[in-house]
Amino acid sequence: MPHSDISPLPCRELFSDLPPFPDNIPTAPLLRISLEKLLQHDSEEEERCWKACCDLGFFYLDLHTSSPISLDDKNRTASGETLLQDADQLFEVMKGFYDLDIKEKIKYDFKDQGSYFGYKGYGEGFIDKQGTRDRNEFYNISKDDILGLSPPLPSPAVLNPHRALYKSYIHSSHAVCMLIASLISLRLPLTHESRAAGGLPALHNLRARSGDQIRFVKAPPQEPSLRGVALGEHTDFGSVTVLFNRLGGLQVRLPPSIAPAPARPSSSSSPPLAAASDVERRLCEDGWAYVRPLPRHCIVNLGDALVKFSNGLLRSNIHRVVAPPGGQGGVTRYSLVYFCRPEDDVLLKGVVEGEEGEGKEVVTAKEWILRRALGRRKVDGWAGSGGTEGVSMRGGGMRV
Ligand SMILES: O=C(O)CCC(=O)C(=O)O
Ligand SMILES: [Fe+2]
Hints:
With 400 residues, the protein is an alpha+beta fold. The protein has helices spanning 35-39, 43-55, 80-98, 102-105, 143-146, 163-187, 192-196, 278-282, 304-309, 365-375, 389-392; strands spanning 32-34, 58-62, 69-70, 77-78, 118-120, 137-142, 213-219, 231-234, 240-245, 250-253, 288-290, 297-302, 319-321, 333-340. Strands 1-2-12-9-14-7-6-5 form an 8-stranded mixed β-sheet. A 4-stranded antiparallel β-sheet has the order 8-13-10-11, with no helix packed on it. This is Clavaminate synthase-like protein.
């Protein structure tokens, strides 16, 4: 099965308030997985999803559904539609926050208290070992805070009225992550003990304390540049990430086995495509490829914890955010993320049959995330804040 997708792309009109994603650059051939089919346990779709998790660790999830997503054992449900609506509303909420004066926003930077929740100002994160500063702002909202599992953190008045929206978004994003975790769990060669204990979903109880978070991201308009990127190359720290973005700029680094989708050929009725800029071409060297945002889809990717649990069978792929391509660089870029992470006390080690990586110190999910997230806030923290990048760029299976 080739790593490409033949189903027709949905219309692009839904992002019509934004400059179009250009057709003249190579893109990452992410599989398009249907949430509706996964909810119906369509075996072919489940197999495609499993393949995407092993080969690239990134895929599009088509959120057009009529089937309900079960949220809990009390018969509460959500749908792809409600997730999309929540995401739309959160894009507006985050704009309200980012419009605040910087003096107000930095009151919510909790780095010095050893927390990665709250605000990170523009340029306050480091994207490489040379200490280059990032070019974006973050605001992280803790799942435990919103669900009342931990004491509430101070938060700005513009964000406080929307706690019900955060809760709804957390519930449906977490449910999507658990659907993926169950699918993976059934296919992994789990040890008898981990299967008996409930497999991967049992390590991600929504009501247990964890580093799960909603993230708002803002990057101002950017000139295409090879020096400095909005968000440096990284793997995600946790288990499953649900990402909504509307402007290009996200790039994944494809493994040698997956070729980028070439620039789209111009049709006889349309004018010939202008060449990609020199900077854009160079940003596509070394396997990097742009991810085209698709309306009504989210992007799902796997993080380091699943690489650890699966002894490297699953992939947490390296990605970064560069200036949006073509005419998109002139517009402010917002994105919305949900990071689903293992419960704080879970040990990040193999739960599958086979040998464990030797000599590696085993840490808890909480320790792993704190080291990785706070390390990237220190000028000299890059080297000590790495994840499973070495495994991500493997050609075949590799020990973690
Ligand atoms: O903004 C994006 O498209 C990606 C953000 C991301 O990778 C992250 O926050 O970890
Ligand atoms: Fe990421």
